[in-house]
Write a structure and sequence with these properties.
The chain has 466 residues and is an alpha/beta fold. The protein contains 15 helices and 21 strands. The strands form four sheets. It has a nine-stranded mixed beta sheet, sandwiched between helices. The protein is globular and about 70 Å long.
Amino acid sequence: MTPITSFVGKTVAVFGLGNSGAATAFALRDGGCEVICFDDDERSVGIASGYGLRTGNLRAANWKQLDALVLSPGIPLTHPKPHWTVESATRAGIPIIGDVELFCRERAKLAPASPFIAITGTNGKSTTTALIAHLLKAAGKDAQMGGNIGAPVLSLMPPAPDRVHVVECSSFQIDLAPSLNPTIGIHLNLTPDHLDRHGTMENYAAIKERLVAAAGIAIIGVDDAWSKAMASRRVASGLPLLRISAEAPVDNGIFAGVTANDGALDVRLVRVEGGKPRVVANLSGIGSLRGMHNAQNAAAAFAAVSALGVPDEVIAEGLRTYPGLPHRMEEVGRRGRVVFINDSKATNADSTEKALTSFRDVFWIAGGKAKEGGIESLRRYFPNIAKAYLIGAAAEDFAKTLDGAVSHEISGTLEKAVAAAARDAAAHGGERDVCVLLSPACASYDQFQNFEHRGDVFKTLVAKLG
């Protein structure tokens, strides 16, 4: 844990008592702060009290006697309407911050030069974060990984000169971290998401850009217009920038190049320095890094770890041993020529696009609680789909989009979809592998607790197939 000493002797309200909120309360308390915890969920308040944390009804509190509000990133800050705690803190004139901000303040106090890599982007940030941590550990470094992935950032070991913090940051966390200033800041890409929480695409983009704007070294993906504009502004600032791309060469940074090799396609990472390109890694045959979207993730990870002085050959070897993340293009089984892929983390069409470009002859399981736009943007990838199996609340709407373009059936439940897809995939002709792909392009909340639960059920169903 990282005790937060920057609020010693002060009184801070912590609202939202999930994993990150509870870790924040303990970190503040252990650093000498008087903490008052609260949540709209009475059960969470009871659990926190049972752990020995001080709880109190913030609705009845004198907010002018508080020094700050630490808000869970899941609580609305601005849209669709500021949470009541935000309104109370604003009236009292006290700062509203998050756990990443507390980490940044403690780092500035303890070890301001300690290596800190922060990663954001609409898609790919979890894979990139985990890959960077894996590469650093493979190189013998003390790498602490957390934030929006896995452990809350304040549950990690404190900043130290020989310890690297690798922190995934959501837009919500960035919005609550005004002093965010990583050693290396990575922005991967930007597509519409969370607009219900940010109001407009312009606001969403501006929040994401804060992470790289204040970084010592910025690594920015340039495969979409919003991110390309961020890179241009970074160049204008005169601060260090490395571009990454999975689509085209870059003038200073790393891009993914595709070459033919004995009838197969090799995906290679190419570093460009001083106008000179040099191949630094080959991603072909690394199942955990399938697809050009993962080539972008690997390019970002390679650039970041290299910037910390790890030799290229050590990084290249680390790429080959990366096990991948659960629920992200995760191979969970094989029956003859049929491979089963769990991509439950694909909760929007943009994420599912990455999976559909990575396979041919796809028996696609999709559906759930649909996001804005549905799957219309995936139409150009429909030729890759042998048949679709639709589940959840979005099934009928998705069926309308697929009508006349892709063979499909409304399965309703994941159990029925897996059984039907496995049967049809096994009967599919040809010699090459075929894929049963769970990549829902939807949130999971209509039938499952979260995307992890959905993916775990899929893995269980696949295992029962034998």
